[in-house]
Predict the 3D structure of the following.
Amino acid sequence: MGCSIMKDTIIAGLDVGSSKVRVIVGQKIDGNPLHIVGYSEVVSEGVSKGVVKSVEDAVSSISRAFEQAERMTGIPIERAYVGISGAHIRSDTSRGVIAVSKADGEIKEDDVERVIEASQAVSTPPNYEILHVIPKYFSVDSQTGIKDPVGMTGIRLEVEVQIIQGLSAQIKNLTKVVYRSGVEVEDLVVSALASAEAVLSKRQKELGVAVLNIGASTTSLAVFEEGEVIATHVIPIGSSHITSDIAIGLRTSIDNAEEVKVRYGVADPGAVERKEDIDLSKITDGETGIVSRRHVAEIIEARVEEIFKLTDLELAKIERSGKLPAGIVITGGGAKLNGMIGVARKIFKLPASIGAPREVASAIDKVDDPSLATAVGLVRWGERFGFIGGKDNNFFRGQLRSFGGGDVGDKVKRWLKAFMP
């Protein structure tokens, strides 16, 4: 009996990365903060640049990750919130306009539902599917910037939304590998949004902030302003490219280069003494040679600068380069390289910090690690917008594309409560 009560309070997050598959299991009991009760991390196979390349290998990795998490918690995982990333993810702004249906002009939940549906009547590219439709603000007649229009009076209701889309084939492949590992997909959430859920405060999102998640082979960006996401983007470069650069620069193996990066890597050459050397024979048997640690730092700095400059180009496209008061928050496994903050401040000309999961209670030591930001963020997403204790907690943002079904008015009401200040 105890297990079934526990099972109702469990939320699982699955982050399928290019180097690691991570599962975080959270427990939410009414009135108590979210508590992380389980964690697993296994080597990822069958995934490259955020997309599934081999179904069999991916199923094997994901199954192992779930099995480890289940052994730690003693609770079977039946469903999970799953992060989706990759260069195929695209983000656009769209608008919807409707006439208010009631004769007295009072705006109801079904008007909100209709205007959001209208905003989706954009020409979706062939083979793409909508993942998220995120309202930024509503306008009633000539009044703009409204967060919650329900109960207001007007003739014309407008909404501006952020539409995030992904390639249908990649969405289907990711869904398939999770189902084949014996777990249902509760919702697919763009990884950049999940990371933000874990590491950003409400105040940072209000002021204007960018979260940059540096994974193994992709770097994802989400930009927030006035509490809402205004842009997302995925750059197909990550920390594995730094490892490859070191391997080429030192003429050594990838495994050895990874060890050099983890043990001695620094993104700021100025922080390294000129005469500091690395003896490769002490890292791997059979390797020989002495290399300058500063030379390694210069290799790392060049690639980190490239990632940050490409990110800044994306910020310039939305006129936010150098204009985000809460700055840049760097997270993901790549954020753990020493010296990242200094390079970020230099390139972005903004405040910069490392983002680790915030305000999470757990007996597990590693939960505050930046590499777990996406997995913890997926659990947080489930806490805010999902099903807990057998109840539909909120009509969560990820499913705005399917408002139909059930009591729409009730769903919209719960969704508005979740998002409006």
About this structure: The chain has a mean pLDDT of 88. The chain has three domains: 2-87+169-199+358-399, 90-165, 235-354. The first strand starts at residue 10 and ends at 16.
